[in-house]
Amino acid sequence: EAEVAQSPRYKITEKSQAVAFWCDPISGHATLYWYRQILGQGPELLVQFQDESVVDDSQLPKDRFSAERLKGVDSTLKIQPAELGDSAMYLCASSSRLAGTYNEQFFGPGTRLTVL
Amino acid sequence: LAKTTQPISMDSYEGQEVNITCSHNNIATNDYITWYQQFPSQGPRFIIQGYKTKVTNEVASLFIPADRKSSTLSLPRVSLSDTAVYYCLGDGDNQGGKLIFGQGTELSVKP
Q1: Residue A84 burial (CB count, 10 A)
Q2: What is the pLDDT along chain A (116 residues), one digit of tens a residue?
Q3: Which candidate in B98, B100, B105, B106 is best for mutational testing of the A interface (most A CBs within 10 A)?
């Protein structure tokens, strides 16, 4: 069964350092999402891509976070500089959603970030 | 966007049927009700989705009354492996695929 791949699974960094997370969606899925999940809370959408274009980044802290999906396949989420409050699970999801239809989102295993 | 309300936690025992109710008073006419399950240290996983009445799959059943202001996820004969957080969400094309997760319901199944 196809899965969403993410790496690394765990990342420990010091505040003010730069970190990057990678996501490879299920082949053929045009829509890709990055979520942040703080312990004890539900996931919060950071950015949504349709192919290589950003559809929604309204919740992305753009002063320190950036996301790209240059060829419309895999994606990278970067934080620079990292802050203590960025400690969380970062989840990537993909779907084959088309306008006017419902398609479930498939989530990867996530990257657990700890900022010291 | 549909705001949902569900219990923060529930306890059950193996073999029992568990019903988790979710309120969504302002759900849009064309929104579907969707439930996701999340195990510790994993991403959420789609369980079931419905629009009206009853939907059943190999994992669960979903009951949605005619007014669609609430829904109930039913898990038959739970086992220890059903211990997880369960999220109720409204999903529709007017949200462009954006899922709004609440705090979810943490289900603990005991032996």
Answers
A1: 10
A2: 789 999 999 999 999 999 999 999 999 999 999 999 999 999 999 999 999 999 999 999 999 999 999 898 999 999 999 999 999 999 999 998 655 456 789 999 999 999 99
A3: B98
